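Q: Got a minute? One more chain.
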Amino acid sequence: MLYLAQVHKNDFLDQRQLRLLAREEAENMWVIIPEEAFILLGKGNTLTENLLVLVELSPTGDIERLEDATNWVLNLVKAYLTTGISPEFLQQEADRAEQWRQNLTLQNQDLARRSLELEARREQIQALEESLKRDKNGVQKDGSAGS
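A: Always. Here it is, folded:
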């Protein structure tokens, strides 16, 4: 699993450690890690303190890959922050999409109601036509019986 982490010095053990800051849940979907979680890097690791890194951990918690997060952060800035996409903008777009969804649902319900009304009217007209045919046939029979 991929994490964004920051390099810290553990003074007690005199070695570097990673403080996990966020975890990738899905592509372009990250979750902040609220509790402090650390992974020791081992003695001899010379990563700069406070450096942001991307770290891929195995299911057992072992470090599989570790890289400087500078390019990743710059890509985020390019992709989202230079185009004016902000959390507020995204929330407004989500609100607009929800409003559209609600409007479409109402329109769909209205169309379904109208369709049912039209079907009921069609059935009424058919029943009236049948009734008129029966009445007409009944009148003709009465007229021919009287002649």
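A: The chain has a mean pLDDT of 87.
Q: Perfect, thanks.
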